[in-house]
């Protein structure tokens, strides 16, 4: 029997999914044939590719040109995780509030930690407005497969590596200064939250 023809677009969608799950599996697939190699090197695939294999510890990779090239390519293709890492470091390590713009770009592109952090900072009074922050938090609620606990835990691990101000922000989840409440904007009583009075004074 003749083999069924699979359109290039279908393979491209497979590549995009593979990229979001595992960079290693994507690169293995890219070696199978010239078509896969071409599809794997498109900007959209690099925009989607998972960076989980290389945690956010830039000093670890200085001696590895292959990893450096990988990280540079992710940034060149505006990978949301890459944008968020850069903005996160500038904001927390350098104290540059303008880095919130980068976080917002990553959040708008679908980065869950970025959306959650932008919302949290905004509700704490850091950002354009609390209404704007609430929009990012509500956007998380609109996703079908959101793992809110996993998102909070991942953000907490990331924040634990920076200064005490970051620990203060994430510790608000654990000392009762942030409580979850009903949100009329998204009609949900689980993901969105309100801040108790006097939050910024209790460090």
TrEMBL record:
Coiled coil (UniProt feature): none
Pfam families on file: TPR_27
Protein name: At2g35280-like TPR domain-containing protein
Domain of life: Eukaryota
Ranges of residues in domain At2g35280-like TPR: 57-156
SUPFAM superfamilies cross-referenced by the UniProt entry: F-box domain
Signal sequence bounds: none
């Amino acid at each position: 029997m003749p083999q069924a023809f699979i359109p290039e677009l279908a393979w491209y969608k497979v590549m995009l999914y593979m990229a979001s799950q595992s960079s290693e599996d994507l690169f293995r697939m890219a070696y199978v044939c010239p078509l896969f190699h071409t599809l794997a090197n498109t900007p959209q695939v690099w925009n989607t590719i998972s960076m989980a294999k290389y945690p956010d510890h830039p000093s670890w990779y200085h001696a590895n040109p292959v990893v450096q090239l990988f990280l540079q390519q992710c940034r060149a293709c505006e990978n949301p995780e890459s944008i968020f890492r850069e903005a996160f470091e500038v904001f927390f390590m350098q104290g540059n509030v303008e880095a919130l713009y980068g976080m917002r770009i990553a959040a708008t592109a679908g980065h869950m930690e970025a959306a959650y952090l932008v919302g949290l900072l905004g509700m704490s009074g850091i950002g354009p407005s609390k209404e704007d922050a609430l929009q990012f938090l509500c956007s998380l609620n609109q996703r079908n497969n959101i793992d809110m606990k996993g998102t909070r835990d991942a953000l907490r691990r990331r924040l634990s590596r920076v200064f005490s101000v970051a620990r203060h922000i994430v510790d608000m989840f654990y000392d009762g200064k942030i409580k979850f409440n009903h949100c009329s904007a998204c009609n949900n009583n689980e993901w969105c939250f309100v801040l108790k009075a006097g939050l910024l004074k209790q460090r």
